Amino acid sequence: MSARFNVIGRQTIRVHSGSHRFRRSSGRSVNAPVSARVGSSLSVVKDNADVVVIGGGLAGLAACNELESKGVDYLLLEASDDVGGRVRTDQVDGFLLDRGFAIFLTGYPEAQKVLDYEALNLRPFYAGADVRFQGEFVRLADPFRHPVDGILSLPNPIGSIKDKVLVGLIRFQTVLGMGSIEEMMTRGEETTILKRLVDFGFSDAMIDRFFRPFMAGIFFNRELTTSSRLFNFVMRMLATGQNCLPAAGIGAVSSQLRDNLDADALRMNTKVSEIGGRENDGSRRIQLPSGETVLAKKAIIVACEGPEASRLLGRAIESSPSSNEPAVGTTCLYFSMDKAPTSDPILYLDGDNRGSIVNNCCFPSNVAPSYAPPGKALASVSIIGVPNDDDSTLEAKVRSELSGWFGADEVSSWNLLRVYRIPYAQPNQTLPTDFARSNSLGEGLFVAGDHRNSATFDGALVSGRRAAEAARSEL
């Protein structure tokens, strides 16, 4: 769920993105490597199944959960040391570092069906944002959840009073006036987020000072050329649920899906070189770099990122291709400190829109104290795209900008923990989009991932389930 980078200190590392069940254990990653948990209990490595799933991100995990629940024989092949793809959390010196800043929206309908929210111990953000504008922070609050703060924010310079009223109206429109999620994502006019906001009557000030950094933090696109359908979807999710962090990090979402599965059916550090042709009995051989082959007796679900899925599937995906436009990326820096400069569990946005490198930041330990060890705090800083600057230069630029936000003496005491460079954070979602691409490619081949649906947690979960359902229907 293509390669990703993370940086430990100053060292850059590329990270390619019936039976016993898994149990969580401690270690450097919340998603502790499979080998560390299974150990010598596996005397025989599974090398065949009715359905083989390639890729252990959210889509692949959702597919396996569907197959598991229906009693289908499956095998998951994951190239890295554990499942999760882009939804993983590392432990560094007692801090929880998500591999790229991510917020979990409780309104996701598919997530509500397949995840145990209580077990995730979700901790909510404040429903609003502090926007940095002309040398100070200006608060925008959700008037439905924070009515007093909402009223107080009406006259502030982040848009007009009319703009704040329009936020409420567009929120009601997305909840009550656009039908089901499927109808919202596939029907009606599709335009850019920018045009959607302009046509609804928002001022340039509101768009530039709030929507541009806020939506860029979600879709990594400050130009707001992402599909308006995704804007509508997110606005509905924000209205019907809360923005949260799992207490154990965003990787707890992947871990929970993994823990439902048969440990014997999961193979990590297993990259796929190619998928062989279909035999007369409907089976296919999957070639691994070591020369080993894995037998898919009846079906294969490719649940990798778009470019890798296209490589593995070749001509099979040409009749229903995913977008081949350049993906969008992000860079995330984590800093430790003795105490955060604020206690608010809120998102901070750059509303000046003057080409600053920092788009948004927050203090995850203010939201979920478990993100930092006792007596410490954690800052997460997000940049749109992946700059060419080396780590020292990037760190210096970020410190310089945040010194203006929180004070030079404060920021100078922070310690850089890690930098994550994520060139493939999401597939391209500019116009035109197709959020209902088929999962079935014929001849026992199926494809899943956020490049087939919306590039959201929920889109990946839906895509994985649908691919498994399609595969099961042909067994």
> Cα distance, first to last residue?
25 Å
Count of helical stretches: 16
- The structure class reads alpha+beta
CATH topology of the largest domain: FAD/NAD(P)-binding domain
Q: Could you say what the CATH architecture of the largest domain is? A: 3-Layer(bba) Sandwich
Q: Please write the CATH class name of the largest domain.
A: Alpha Beta
CATH superfamily of the largest domain: FAD/NAD(P)-binding domain
Shape: globular
Number of strand elements: 22
Q: Report the sheet-strand fraction.
A: 15-25%
Largest sheet: 9 strands, mixed
Helix content estimate = 25-40%
Q: Average pLDDT across residues?
A: 92
Spatial extent as radius of gyration: 22 Å
The largest beta-sheet arranges its strands as: 2-1-20-16-19-18-17-9-10
Low confidence ranges: 1-28, 33-42
